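Today's session is about reading a structure prediction critically. Students often jump straight to the picture, but the first step is always the sequence itself: look for stretches that repeat, for charged clusters, for runs of hydrophobic residues. Only then move on to the predicted structure, which in these notes is written as discrete structure tokens rather than atom positions. Here is the chain we will use throughout the hour.
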Amino acid sequence: MTKLFDLSGEVAVVIGATGALGGAIAEGLGEAGASVAVVGRNEERGEARVAAIRKKSGNAAFFRADALQRDDLRGASVAIEKLFGPPTILVNAAGGNDPKVTVTGDRSFEQIALADWAANFDLNLAGGVLLPCQEFGPGMLARGRGSIINIASVSAHIPLSRVVTYSAAKAAVLSLSLFLAREWAAKGVRVNTITPGFFPAEQNRKLLFNDDGSPTPRTRSIWGHTPMGRFGEAQELIGAALFLASHKASGFVTGSDIRVDGGFLSQTI
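Below is the predicted structure for this chain, in token form.
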């Protein structure tokens, strides 16, 4: 049964692998046998991720690219294919929230500037799905084989307080993923999403923890709404990613969303 999740011979592109969640998925794909293209803006973090994958006997290399720059993605695509061969797996993990579009006591919804809204929305939708799929999708379609995994959010299903732009953009990620799943299914390319629950990372740490490390009221609220009563750990996303990446394990799965949220979206009253 373990052969269902053997990714030997696959080439996985993980955009945003310099971050905590994308990085954990990249390591998991590498450990399963895929050659992993670690794609991101930060070379230091990217090379550290490559080293972590190689330490586990995986094959990986870093490719610098900004997910919002089409020329960067094109350059990375050419370099990846030259080194590893044609990509068969694409994980889109670029994105995040921005304090400038977060509703606080000092900034109301009405005060969010359009330029700031557009920048964060584009980061999560255009950089998080649109441009990478436009770059890497056509090659997969031409070869008749590929798995694309987009990273959504619980806020895509139920808009969370404060992170208004991020929530709206992640809802659009779900919609665009469903569109692509329908359009590309007949050509052998599957498109699915993973919905992470709450995983502490750089982008949300200040919202979740005080300077002394104690949980904020928001953290206590999240834990109270999560049946498992805790935050997720980055490596807990790997299983879902391996399932969706493997054609042997999920060859008839497209347009689906796997929730890795500790039950957050199942909680009501």
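Discussion point for the tutorial: The first strand starts at residue 11 and ends at 15.
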